[in-house]
């Protein structure tokens, strides 16, 4: 007895929708800054990296694929230092994996490539 597995995503979606609505109304009343031009290359790069992440998940597993994804965006795109990028990437990939698998009981993909699957990634 208790809330079902869809409660957390529904609650987060509702909160995000409400916050987006508040932000939209605020921006309509008092715009915060002049509109900037969007660089299509940056948007295409992020979308491309998300597609590569989605394609790599079944083979590399969630932890390794997300680690590589975060390292790419932190180190190469945002120019964050090596130590900070590695720490954030490890904590992000492993932490989110265990949050979802142990805390929320949601199964995430594990690696099917031999070296990673042998060590439980």
Multimerization status = single chain
Number of strands: 0
Calculate Rg over CA atoms.
18 Å
Terminal-residue CA separation: 32 Å
Q: What is the percentage of strand-forming residues? A: under 5%
Outline the biggest β-sheet.
none
Mean of residue pLDDT values: 89
Q: What does the overall shape look like? A: globular
Structural class: mainly alpha
Topology pattern, helix = H, strand = E: HHHH
Helix content range: over 70%
- In the predicted model, the low-confidence regions spanning at least 5 consecutive residues are none
Task: Give the helix tally.
Answer: 4
Question: Quick summary of this structure?
Answer:
The chain is mostly helical and 121 residues long.
3D structure, described in words:
The chain is 73% helix and 0% strand. The chain is built from 4 helices and no strands. The protein is mainly α and 121 residues long.
Question: Which key terms come to mind for this protein?
Answer:
121 residues; globular; mainly alpha; 73% helix
Question: Helices, strands, pairings?
Answer:
Elements: H1 7-29, H2 40-77, H3 82-103, H4 114-118
Helix pairs in contact: 2-3
């Amino acid at each position: 007895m208790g809330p079902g597995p869809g409660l957390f995503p529904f609650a987060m979606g509702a909160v995000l929708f409400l916050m987006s609505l508040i932000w939209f109304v605020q921006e309509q009343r008092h715009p915060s800054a002049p509109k900037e031009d969007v660089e299509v290359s940056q948007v295409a790069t992020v979308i491309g990296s998300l597609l590569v992440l989605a394609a790599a998940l079944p083979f590399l597993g969630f932890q390794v694929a997300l680690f590589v994804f975060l390292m790419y965006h932190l180190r190469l795109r945002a120019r964050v230092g090596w130590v900070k990028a590695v720490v954030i990437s490890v904590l992000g990939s492993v932490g989110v994996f265990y949050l979802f698998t142990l805390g929320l009981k949601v199964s995430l993909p594990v690696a099917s490539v031999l070296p990673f699957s042998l060590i439980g990634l």
